[in-house]
UniProtKB/TrEMBL annotation:
PANTHER family: PERIPLASMIC IMMUNOGENIC PROTEIN (PTHR34387:SF1), SLR1258 PROTEIN (PTHR34387). Signal peptide: none annotated. It holds the Pfam family SIMPL. InterPro entries: 26kDa_periplasmic_antigen, SIMPL/DUF541. This is SIMPL domain-containing protein. GO terms for biological process: DNA damage response. It comes from Riemerella anatipestifer. It comes from the Bacteria.
Length: 230
């Protein structure tokens, strides 16, 4: 027990001594910021198949077949990019018809660009599947992007520090402390599409692009750097 106490005392003594040394040495603290906008390359589409949407005329199973056929015509790998969120049933009472079970299924579909997303929406609309929405926008190279932004922010911080010490006729030493903060602002926004007339004449198998846009995702990083003064 005494040995453990001595080890703890030694550890905390070194920690306090290290902090004191850090605070005692002259330093200059500066901050830097870097940001950029990127086009999302992973778009998640939520597809809801509901018998109630067709007044119980088209079963969920039939809607599934139509959906899968439409997606495959667009060259989408349904085994890889289409996933089932869950199966649920709701009860709805009809006048003079008793009680019926209304089935519904929710799917998530991943596409890689806005053009494909637009084609999916149009193709599903042609099949009578209209309960569709964009649920998530992502950028798959986020980690690499944030590292690059941090590097830019640190360089800006150093440049600011160099200019400040030059005015004081001093020399800037090594960085002795760095902290950072990252922010990402992916926004699911209303899509800009063609007019209703153009939508009616759209061919789902066509390779022509659709006028559909998403807001870009904004990434930004902040750094605080303490530089030793020589």
């Amino acid at each position: 027990m005494k040995h453990l106490f001595l080890i703890l005392m030694l550890f905390f003594g070194q920690l306090i001594f290290g902090q004191k040394n850090f605070l005692d040495q002259p330093y200059l603290e500066t901050s830097g910021k870097a940001d950029t906008l990127v086009i999302p390359d992973k778009i998640t589409i939520n597809i809801n198949l509901n018998e109630a949407d067709t007044k119980n005329k088209i079963s969920v199973e039939e809607q599934e077949k139509r959906m899968e056929s439409a997606l495959k015509k667009l060259g989408i790998n349904t085994e890889k990019d289409l996933s089932l969120n869950g199966l649920s049933s709701g009860f709805k009472t009809y006048f003079l018809k008793g009680q019926n079970i209304i089935k519904q299924k929710n799917y998530s579909l991943v596409v890689r660009n806005a053009v494909t997303a637009g084609k999916v929406l149009m193709a599903l609309e042609e099949q009578g599947i209209s309960n569709v929405n964009i649920s998530k926008l992502e950028y798959t190279k986020e980690e690499e992007l944030l590292l690059a932004l941090k590097s830019k922010a640190v360089l800006k911080s150093r440049l600011t520090a160099e200019r400040m010490v030059k005015a004081l006729n001093q020399k800037l030493g090594k960085a002795i402390f760095i902290s950072d903060e990252n922010n990402a602002y992916p926004q699911v926004t209303p899509m800009m599409m063609r007019s209703a007339k153009a939508m009616e004449s759209y061919d789902a198998s066509s390779e022509s692009p659709i006028d559909i846009e998403f807001n870009k995702i904004k990434y930004e990083t902040f750094v605080n750097v303490k530089f030793q003064l020589d």
